[in-house]
Amino acid sequence: MTEKEKMLAGDLYTADDPEIAADAARAARWMARYNAAAAASPAERHALLVEGLGAVGRGVTVRSPFHCDYGDNIRLGDGVFLNFGCVILDVVAVEIGAGTQIGPGVQILTADHPRDPAARAAMLEFGRPIRIGANVWIGGGALILPGVTIGDDAIVGAGSVVTRDVPAGATVAGNPARVLRA
């Protein structure tokens, strides 16, 4: 397997591989154009999103600045809203369901690192996919950690650190996020 194939499979890989580095550079150029187009028409911004991300539904809004690793692994359903300053580390799949609203400064982080110090010293990393359901509301500054699934209609309180799955319809908050209401 190539390093990129390992990355996409969630296996240990080295991020400084030339193919992966080229993908990251392409994404950086796309982000520079997208973030510079904050005053462009909604149609122009949507076209840029379609160019840079894996899948983009109708009526998606992503406010600048927006940052990601690669873009190709991000799938946004119809009507998704990402507010200013969102960061998505998409070394593996990130799926965000229709109608989900994500507050400013939210970080969605699929990238992870080995717990073994020797593997970490060898600059190995891996990813675990994140799935956020439909009609979810994630408050500003929340962190969604690798491998988490957030069910449909859930609410994540501002500033929460989501370390485990959130059931559909639940409200969670805190660090680590805990269910307040199911």
TrEMBL record:
Gene3D superfamilies: Hexapeptide repeat proteins (2.160.10.10). InterPro entries: Hexapep, Hexapep_transf_CS, Hexapeptide_acetyltransf, Mac_dom, Trimer_LpxA-like_sf. One of its GO terms (cellular component) is cytosol. GO terms for molecular function: acetyltransferase activity; O-acyltransferase activity. It comes from the Bacteria. Keywords: Acyltransferase, Nodulation, Repeat, Transferase. The keyword Nucleotide-binding does not apply. Coiled coil: none annotated. The keyword S-adenosyl-L-methionine does not apply. SMART domains: Mac. Residues 4-58 form the Maltose/galactoside acetyltransferase domain. Acetyltransferase implicated in the O-acetylation of Nod factors. Belongs to the transferase hexapeptide repeat family. This is Nodulation protein L. It comes from Sphingomonas taxi.
